[in-house]
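Entry for the shared binder. Reason: the reviewer on the internal report wants the predicted structure included alongside the sequence.
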Amino acid sequence: MDQVKIGRFIAQRRKANQMTQLQLAEKLGITDRAVSKWENGRSMPDAALMPELCQLLGITINDLFNGEVTDVENYNEKTEKLLLEMAKEKEQADKRLLTMEIVIGAVSTAFLLAMVAVGSIFLSDDKQRWIFFLLLGIGFVQFIICMQIALRIEQVAGYYECRKCGHKHVPTYGAVTIAMHMGRTRWLKCPSCGKWSWNKKVLKKD
């Protein structure tokens, strides 16, 4: 989606309906600064606000996402193009998330090892041995927290593809946590065919 184009479209429709940014903001229960950010292409309206915003501007949700009023003749074409763009954006966002997962895992592991290495200096001194256990505890706590974040990313980014029927799905956080795995391939039960198999992580739905 072209945020700049959408922003210009919002401004155009607002002016056509003879509203200032402040007036539109008041009708939506937000600040005029938020409206200004939309119109400058710096952010998008929250999904919860979109139906009311479109009603006030006299447009459809599809018009909003396209940044222009869609004619009936090319409605299907525009909608298909928009869906493809949204799918591509999600795929790119999922790639970034999975890269972040690797970074989080590497950094948290390095931090844990650093805490162990630094703490081991104090092991030989009985009076300072508590420092080792303190640093070890700090290292483990951050490691566990980071692993939970990484698992959440693993769950929501992309899909898991059933080896038996090819169905692509997003499993629950609990299923991802307890599943046996090799890299990003996990032993999961397919919600479609009900069979257990090694489900491979994929980024595309279709």
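Summary line for the report: The chain has a mean pLDDT of 91.
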